[in-house]
Write a structure and sequence with these properties.
By secondary structure, the chain is an all-alpha fold. It contains 14 helices and no strands. It has one domain: Farnesyl Diphosphate Synthase (Orthogonal Bundle).
Length: 298
């Protein structure tokens, strides 16, 4: 696959797929699915909308953000991860930028077919994707702002987009918007986990990711608190709304995360990837439980 080229001088199709990073598509696709559930609209007769929206959330908008990030991160990647498609030369010349621009346009075209609020959400998500990586803003230079932008795009915005798509492009109800906002806030901590692997390169290039700026130990504590507090707020809201079963599920999942957090905090640099693999799934399952609560309240 890596050797398949559409034309001499173009990147191999395998390298393009690697640039778009399918492994990163799951979080926004999952969040979009949570929005679909939270909308309260039956899937029967709406499968086309749901599947198109999942395509928009993952292989289009999220993939765009990955291409944009790798293009503008090519110098730091040459230090941290020189095997990536752009610094390794497998995506030659300006092809990384060309792919990022093309995927932006394709994402907007698909979003426009799903209604006004979906289109506006896609515009915001794509704008944040470019602002995160590209100068002059380059939000990723500051871990607080950059992680907030990613958390909003990957979780809350994708949730709102899913609900809006199922509602025919209408704005979702307040309960759904509140839950989406809280899970976006918590996702800031998830984004911090991704930065532990690149502390050396970030410091060398002046990127103030939280592990590079605060140090691994403090950044790990911040990530855990930022993930836990919004979930605590979700539990309180679900109880207030009379959704005790869903509140109990989220509480049990949070307790499981707390146990894993203690293990992570003991050696954060070595265990950040481990916690991402085992603790974060409990976070996103809590999202789904909360989406079912929002569905019942819709």
């Amino acid at each position: 696959m890596n050797g398949t080229r559409l034309h001499p001088g173009t990147p191999a199709l395998g390298a393009v797929l690697e640039l778009l990073k399918p492994v990163t598509w799951f979080p926004p696709m999952w969040a979009f699915g949570c929005g679909v559930v939270a909308s309260g609209v039956p899937l029967a007769g709406h499968w086309g909308v749901a599947l198109t929206g999942i395509l928009l959330a993952g292989p289009l908008v999220c993939a765009t953000s990955q291409a944009v990030n790798d293009w503008f991160d090519r110098e730091v990647d040459a230090i941290n991860e020189p095997h990536r498609p752009i610094p390794s030369g497998r995506i030659p010349g300006h092809w990384g930028l060309v792919i990022a621009v093309a995927w932006t346009g394709l994402s907007l075209a698909v979003a426009a077919s799903l209604g006004l609020w979906v289109f506006l959400a896609a515009v915001l998500g794509l704008a944040l994707a470019w602002a995160y990586s590209a100068p002059p803003l380059r939000l990723k230079r500051n871990g607080w702002w950059g992680n907030a932008a990613c958390g909003l795009c990957y979780e809350g915005l994708a949730w709102v987009t899913g609900a809006a798509a199922m509602l025919g492009g209408a704005l979702p109800p307040a309960t759904s918007l509140i839950l989406a906002a809280l899970y976006s806030a918590g996702a800031h901590g998830i984004m911090t986990l991704n930065d532990f692997k690149s502390v050396a390169g970030d410091r060398q290039m002046g990127i103030r990711s939280l592990p590079a700026h605060l140090g691994p130990a403090r950044a790990a504590r911040v990530a855990c608190w930022v993930m836990a507090v919004p979930q605590g707020a979700v539990i309180g809201l679900l109880l207030a709304w009379g959704r005790t079963v869903e509140a109990g599920i989220v509480a049990a999942l949070l307790a499981g995360q707390a146990a894993m957090m203690r293990h992570f905090l003991a050696r954060p640099t070595e265990r950040a990837l481990w916690y991402s693999g085992f603790g974060v799934p409990l976070y996103v399952f809590g999202m789904l439980a909360s989406a079912f609560a929002a569905r019942a309240l819709a």
